[in-house]
Amino acid sequence: MAEIWLHIGTQKTGSTSVQHFGRNHASFLAEQGVSFIGLGKRSSLNRLPKAMRQRKPDAVRQLGAWAEAGIAAATARHVVLSSEMFVSNGVDLDLLKEVVPSLTRMPLNIVIYLRRQDKWHESHYRQRVKTGRYGGSFVSFFEKTRDAYGDYNRILTAWQSAFPDATFHVRRFEKNRLKDGDVVSDFMSLLGVLDLPDQEGAAQSNVSPGVELLTVLKLMKKTGAFDVGKMRQAIQSRCDVSGSRARLMPNDYAREIVRYYEDSNEAVRRAFFPQDAQLFDLGDIQGEGHVAEGFSDEQQALIRAMLDAIAESQSKAA
């Protein structure tokens, strides 16, 4: 009997790579009894939870009907539905069950990857800066978003309540815990697909910018004269060196972030990993650690002045 594998993220845990693999290797996966159900040309269902968050009921029902039709047409034993946005705030799980009724009619596996919160928030911050949606400091960003994201026990409790008969596969997004150190290999191993096509040379999906490029993008944001997202794409199309990948925070602040979610993490550990002393490995944030310096204050002032001058000249030319 066919069963559904609902991959719900979380965000910043390689979901895009899993979805790209599902799209790019559909023929191989079909031979293995696996089928990814997407919307349009994508191998993800991101449009469905996005419509829920935007409170577009007609779109939600239409997208749900398309997903349901895809499930009905699938002949594979393992039917995969993937969207990291399913765990976003504003997603109505009761409505999800209503518009995709196969989730309660067929055997259901729910797969979720959890990333240690300091790393998750850092990656989320880089993403928001690179798209031009934020231009402040990492500390201010965390303080604004810490209660909206990172409480994994709250997420899991909500999903277990909505889908009490589902089998939950909770995975930790840590290289030493993933099969072959890779999230695609790890996810596919859950489906019994162990020997994957050679991925050497495959481009990493949804890469976040390094420290120096982040600084430039934030300075662009402050001028208010640039489309930061488009400028980032233009820069990276001309230069593939985006800067240092060093951490954006000292280790003591990383530990403070993890402590903020201590109770939540402990609840998840007890429920899913009782054999382990702690949910996440904290070895890399002991001691002081290294914080990325990026550009000096003087260099940033020079870059900001240059950007202001460019913006002013463009305004006069218009």
What's the count of strands?
5
Give the proportion of residues in helices.
40-55%
CATH fold descriptor of the largest domain:
Rossmann fold
> Largest sheet, order of strands side by side?
2-3-1-4-5
Shape summary: globular
Order of helices and strands: EHHEHHEHHEHHHEHHHHHH
Number of domains: 2
What this model shows, in words?
This protein is of the alpha/beta class and 318 residues long. It folds into two domains: 3-123 and 149-190, Rossmann fold; 211-311, no CATH class. It is built from 15 helices and five strands. The protein has helices at 15-24, 26-31, 47-53, 57-73, 93-99, 102-105, 117-130, 138-145, 152-162, 183-190, 211-223, 228-238, 251-260, 262-272, 297-317, and strands at 3-7, 34-37, 78-82, 108-114, 167-172. The longest helix is centred in the C-terminal third of the chain and has 21 residues, at 297-317. It is globular and about 65 Å long.
Summarize this structure briefly.
With 318 residues, this protein is α/β, with parallel strands linked by helices. The protein contains 15 helices and 5 strands.
Describe the SSE topology.
Elements: E1 3-7, H1 15-24, H2 26-31, E2 34-37, H3 47-53, H4 57-73, E3 78-82, H5 93-99, H6 102-105, E4 108-114, H7 117-130, H8 138-145, H9 152-162, E5 167-172, H10 183-190, H11 211-223, H12 228-238, H13 251-260, H14 262-272, H15 297-317
Parallel strand pairs: 1-3, 1-4, 2-3, 4-5
Q: What are the salient characteristics of this protein?
A:
Rossmann fold, 318 residues, 8% strand, five-stranded parallel β-sheet, 15 helices, alpha/beta, 2 domains
